[in-house]
Amino acid sequence: MITYALGRGLYVALTNRANTTPLFNTRGPGFKITSTQFEPLPEGIEPETQQVLAAVGSALALTLGPAKYDSIVFAGFGEPTLRLGSLLEVCQGLKAGVAKDIPLRLSTNGLGNVLHGRDLIPELAASGIMGVTVALNTGLYGSQRLLRGTCAHLYIYICICTGLALFTPNCLRT
Q1: Among residues 78, 68, 76, which one has the least CA distance to residue 38?
Q2: Distance CA 165, CA 132 (A)
C-alpha cells in the first residue's frame, strides 16, 4: 500500500529498502503501527512517481480533501532517501497539484547526506519538504525504552548533530 493514514498525517511509502534496521525490527515481536491501513509495499515493488501522485490524489479524494490532513509524510517501512530522485519528483508534483496547501514532511534515519555524499537539505527544501523527523532506531530488542528514557538528552543531541536543527531554518528560508 503506497499511502496510509496515521493520526492527521497521510503517510507515503516509497520503498521497503533500508540502510539501517527498520523500525518494525527494532521494537520487538508483535510491534504494529496503530493504523489499520498500513501494509508494507509488496516485495520488490517501488512505485513510480505517477503511481505515488495518483495514490495521494485518491487518498485525498476519499477523505474529503486536504482539510483532513495536517501533513503528508514520506515514511513507510523503508528509508525514503534511498529513492531520492523519486522523493524529490513526487514532492514537486504534489506541490504543483493536489497537495499544494498541505505541508510535506520527511521521516528519515538521517543518513541521506552520507548515502548521497552531499548536503540534501537544499534539495529537500526546494522540493517543498517543510519538516523532518530523524528516527533513532536500534537493532537491540528492548533498547527503545532506553532511547525514550534516561538517555533521551543524548539522542536529542544526536538529532541536532545529524541535521535536524539545520533543516528547519533552511526550509523556512525558501
Answers
A1: 76
A2: 10
Task: List phi, psi (to 5°) of 13.
Answer: -100, 125
Rounded to the nearest 10 degrees, the angle between the axes of helix 152-161 and helix 164-173 is: 50
Q: Measuring CA to CA, how many Å separate 127 from each of 28, 40, 88, 91, 106?
A: 35, 25, 6, 6, 11
Report helix, strand or coil for 77: coil
User: Where are the chain's structural domains?
Assistant: 3-173
Task: Report percent pLDDT > 90 for the chain.
Answer: 32
* pLDDT tens digits, 100-144: 889 999 998 888 888 898 889 889 999 999 888 877 655 555 554
Cell of 96: 504543483
All three cell numbers of 36? 489499520
Tell me if 52 sits within 8 A of 85, measured CB to CB.
no
Q: Label the pairing between strands 9-13 and 3-6.
A: antiparallel
Name the pTM for this structure. 0.76
Contact 81, 17 (CB under 8 A): no
How far is residue 75's CA from residue 133's CA, in Å, rounded to a whole number?
A: 10
**Residue 31 to residue 23: CA distance in whole angstroms:** 9
